[in-house]
Design brief:
The protein is an alpha+beta fold and 350 residues long. The chain folds into two domains: 230 residues, Jelly Rolls; 98 residues, Jelly Rolls. 15% of the residues lie in helices and 35% in strands. The strands form five sheets. Strands 14, 15, 16, 17, 18, 19 and 20 form a seven-stranded antiparallel β-sheet that branches. It has a six-stranded antiparallel β-sheet with strand order 2-3-5-12-7-10, with no helix packed on it. It has a three-stranded antiparallel β-sheet with strand order 9-8-11. A hairpin with a 2-residue loop joins strand 14 and strand 15. The mean pLDDT is 89.
Amino acid sequence: MRPLKFEPVPIGTIWGGEDWILSAMEGRQTICLPGGNAMPEDNADEGLSLSELVCKYRERLVGQKVWNKYGSRFPLLVKYINSRQQLSVQVHPGDKMADRKGLPNGKTEMWYVLEAKKDSELLIGFSKRFSKQDFAKIVSNSIQEKDVKKGEKTLEDVLNRFTPKRGDWYFIPAGTVHSIGAGTRILEIQQPSDITYRLYDFNRVDVEGHRRHLDVEDALDAIDFEETQEEYVEVQRNVFDTPASGVNVVPLARCPHFVCNFISFASESKNGIEQFYHLDNSRYESFSVIVCTGGSGTLFYKSLPGSCIRDCISVSDGDLYLIPAELGAVEIRSLDELQIVETHLEVGEI
């Protein structure tokens, strides 16, 4: 096997758009692209969907522990979010609610900010604890456009506000109310689900003059009212700074659904010294996904199990590679301030 690259699936929306860069979701499957080498065997998987690859290679692709838990259902969805306008105030269901509704899983996600205008803003989590009844009243105030000067609070009054910068990240557990502001581009790692419950959409209308559908009842059922969620203030960090030397690894998210790390390489090109990083998830029996968020480098991997011969592929800004579990340890090298968001699963470890 070899590291696999895929054709993104673009999706237009009223507020901007998304590019699904790794997806096994029905109707929105990413398709495998040709390998980097000219040998016919390197392109044997060209044109296959991610689901077809999982069924073809099974645990060789996803890892034994991952296969035992998820079977042929690929457990991640990776996308770029490009917001020209503010997204709706929304929430995603957790696994328990998804199970009640006959859905495969909930939707916990992690955002890594790639671009953000100076006036862009994120809304994430409550600024204080609310009862379901009190929060339902606030939602109603927003929809009815109540006069806040008369003491009627709206959603924008009671959610935590953040000014995102390139390199910031945010962990968004299922059940967390959130919204992405205009002028923001985000890399999103998430459980494979497209279920969104809208609480409020700023009373926008479509081309026919109709307000967008809201899912207030389901959204209120999905929200986690047990936490104030003020911890999101502490989650925000900036990891864009390049290390002075070597390779720096910063944990971004760690939960039962995925583990994400930011890996940044120092620039030593003036001295011609390559920085390198060994990526090995064999003890987790999991695949890895790497998304390059800046710079460039080279990924080395063994072309045959047990072989000393290594093949290599280039990695540059915007590239995503799915690294099959069968490859074991791979090595990433760079002279050019390479930055990577790496994701894998640790089934049973968390």
